[in-house]
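Page 47, continued from p. 46.
Same chain as before, 185 aa.
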Amino acid sequence: MRIIVGISGASGAIYAIKVLEELKKQKVETHLVVSDWGEITIKTETSYFLEDVKSLADYYYNCKDLGAPISSGSFPSDGMVIVPCSMKSLAGIAHGYADNLLLRAADVTIKEQRKLVLVVRETPLNPIHLENMLILSRIGVIIMPPVPSFYVRAQSIDDVVEQTVGKILQQFSICIPRFQQWGGQ
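Result:
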């Protein structure tokens, strides 16, 4: 299995780091691209450096490198996740404005009809955000805000992050042992 992981400049870089860690455990080949603001968010919100995050992926591409393999439909993948996904990235994807590798890889994922999961981070949402999400949802893109599952009775932020990572990876039919599915009452 091969998944492209994008990190944009929205809050929630820890979700991406934990997704990469889990994909590495699952032996899924990962191709990472990080926007400039994604890098700043990693530094601001976590104790990780970009080099640490890059080391979690099998391949890393500079966001300015529009000639990278993931910029082409001839590069096979099982899909892409952008986690977190900023409203700027969402808007670029929704309107085909692929001016960097993150957006180009998402554009290619859509045109090749592969799975694209956007873990959008913003609140409150304005009508423009909602319209952009609707545009993408109508063509099959999965819009997945990282909403906590309170039924798991999380004891820490790590528990909340882990449950969200489980939900994200479930979209690619990857199950992690600690993910708690709703079992009913």
